[in-house]
Specification:
Elements (H helix, E strand, L loop, with lengths): L1 H6 L4 E5 L5 H13 L4 E5 L13 H10 L6 E3 L7 E3 L8 H6 L2 H9 L1 H28 L2
Parallel strand pairs: 1-2
Antiparallel strand pairs: 1-3, 3-4
Helix pairs in contact: 5-6
């Protein structure tokens, strides 16, 4: 959705996770509000289906970003260099992250063989998506 929204060339787009980077989140909201045009912000928000302690949602957001599960970026068409990649390279283990959440654990319980294959595919897809966002950042500079 983020890439599609950016493709219009006149939409402010950001991807944020408050628990991962409060300053980046605040900056995205300020930029979106100040932008003279449509703005969209994608925010990572864990829910009860993730099977986590809901008092730890900000910790879960940080884990998602650190594992390379969720990107942080801002695209502001009004700037000379509109794309800003705000995430650091993943330092957490993607598989550890998804295996810790109830929505992924349930698949392992019901179909372990399919789960292993799907977990590997999800990790490869996430890596490819992160690299694509980074490449977009290089193209629009």
């Amino acid at each position: 959705m983020g890439l599609m929204s950016m493709s219009y060339g006149y939409v402010y787009v950001a991807s944020v996770a408050l628990g991962a980077d409060r300053n980046q989140t605040l900056k995205a909201f300020q930029e979106a509000e100040a932008y003279d045009g449509p703005s969209i912000i994608f925010a990572y928000a864990p829910c009860i289906a993730h099977g986590i302690d809901m008092s730890k949602t900000q910790t879960e957001q940080k884990r998602a970003v650190e594992a390379g599960y969720f990107p942080l970026y801002r695209y502001n068409p009004s700037l000379e260099q509109p794309f800003s990649w705000d995430a650091k390279d993943p330092k957490g283990a993607y598989q550890d992250f998804i295996r810790s959440e109830g929505r992924y654990k349930s698949l392992m319980k019901t179909n372990p063989d399919a789960a292993e294959a799907l977990y590997a595919k999800a990790e490869a897809d996430a890596h490819k998506r992160m690299e694509m966002y980074k490449a977009v950042g290089e193209l629009v500079r």
